[in-house]
Design a protein that fits this description.
Layout lengths: L4 E5 L6 H13 L3 E3 L14 H9 L4 E6 L15 H11 L4 E6 H17 L1 H6 L11 H12 L7 E4 L2 H37 L5 H13 L4 H30 L12 H8 L2 H6 L6 H5 L5 E5 L10 E7 L6 E4 H15 L4 H14 L3
Parallel strand pairs: 1-2, 1-3, 3-4, 4-5
Antiparallel strand pairs: 6-7, 7-8
Helix pairs in contact: 2-3, 7-8, 7-9, 8-9, 9-13, 9-14
Length: about 375
């Protein structure tokens, strides 16, 4: 069974206790903790350890960041950022859920720095000694790193902590919230699927569309999803209309002259029609080319259209039988319009669903 992997990013020497407790907490949660000191990172012999740590983030699902009073080593071949910051930037680029914790005294120091920068100017603020920062030369890079996290457009929540119990309590609530959101989103998706499935069987009348709009808004699915389903309902209806006409033509053409019993048409059709092959056919630029790929089907159409729209212009049938179902100019034009406007333009998913639905419900 696949389980979530949680990458823990922080400086190591000053946060050994927090990291050890996080390793135990994450394991007890049923997740897989990834920490370098617990052999959670694979160190490729052909790569620097910094690169290995950052690469390991790609294989994780959640990212826990802890910022304290040490900046840590700088990334080899980086632009001056710490290894921890480089790991964070990688997690952001992958859009991983990030849970950031800042040691309380460091968070207070950053706020004090920002306030003095605003009131007294940056030169003054940079001369202040911040006791929570181990090396004063690291103070500004640490504060800038915190600012980088907090100013991100999304995924920018931070939490102060004094002891590990603060981290544990916050993660429990956040991960419970993630599970709740997943279940809620899943419930909403099932609502949408249920509504769409119900309306697929309706025609695209104004009443059906009004029913769809009202149902979606009542269930708070949203305007965009409403428009999407309205469009798909209309397309699905037209697709079913096209394939119903086509199947009727093909079935009616299946006549065995040695036993011309019309009640056998559908049985004869099933004998010559390869449903799976038909499903696999991709739409061509025009209807004639599309139908020419149907195995065993013969289409005979006169390109010179007569003046009378109800005059025959050809026929359709399977090569096994000599009979061809007559197609009038009007019928062919209607089929072509439906094909060009909907079959050729639709997604494979909607097209396949329409074919399956018509094929299953057709009755002769």
């Amino acid at each position: 069974m696949a389980i979530p992997k949680v990458f823990v990013s922080s400086t190591c020497y000053d946060l050994q206790e927090e990291r050890a407790q996080l390793e135990r907490f994450i394991s007890s949660y049923g997740f897989l903790p990834v920490l370098s000191e617990y052999s959670g990172v694979y160190y490729d012999v052909d790569e620097h350890t910094h690169a290995a740590c950052i690469k390991e983030v790609e294989h994780c699902d959640l990212f826990v960041l802890i910022i304290s009073g040490r900046y840590g080593g700088k990334l080899k071949e980086g632009s001056g950022q710490s290894i921890t910051q480089a790991e964070y930037e990688k997690a952001r680029s992958l859009d991983l859920p990030i849970f950031t914790f800042i040691k309380s005294d460091v968070s207070d120091a950053q706020l004090y720095f920002k306030e003095n920068t605003r009131s007294q100017g940056p030169d003054f603020a940079q001369k202040i000694v911040y006791p929570s920062i181990q090396k004063q030369t690291d103070a500004i890079p640490i504060f800038n790193f915190i600012e980088l996290v907090q100013r991100a457009n999304t995924n920018n929540g931070t939490e102060k902590y004094s002891s590990f119990s603060d981290i544990e309590s916050h993660l429990k609530k956040q991960w419970a919230g993630m599970m709740f959101k997943y279940l809620s989103d899943r419930k909403d998706r099932l609502k949408v699927d249920s509504i769409a499935s119900s309306l697929i069987s309706l025609t695209d009348t104004t009443e059906a569309l009004r029913s769809l709009v009202g149902s979606l808004h009542d269930k708070e699915v949203g305007v965009n999803e409403t428009k999407f389903l309205i469009d798909n309902t209309k397309i699905s209806s037209r697709l079913r209309h096209f394939y119903n006409k086509l199947f009727v033509l093909m079935v009616d053409s299946c006549v065995d002259l040695s036993s011309p019993d019309s009640s056998n048409n559908f049985a004869l059709f099933l004998d010559v029609f390869d449903f799976d092959q038909f499903l696999s056919i991709k739409p061509e630029d025009n209807l004639y080319d599309y139908l020419s790929h149907v195995e065993g089907l013969v289409i005979e159409i006169d390109v010179n259209m007569p003046d009378d729209e109800f005059s025959p212009i050809g026929g359709i049938g399977f090569s096994k039988f000599k009979v061809r179902k007559i197609i009038t100019q009007n019928s062919w034009i209607q089929l072509e319009k439906l094909y060009v406007s909907y079959v050729y333009q639709s997604s494979d998913k909607l097209r396949v669903e329409a074919i399956q639905m018509v094929y299953e419900h057709i009755n002769y």
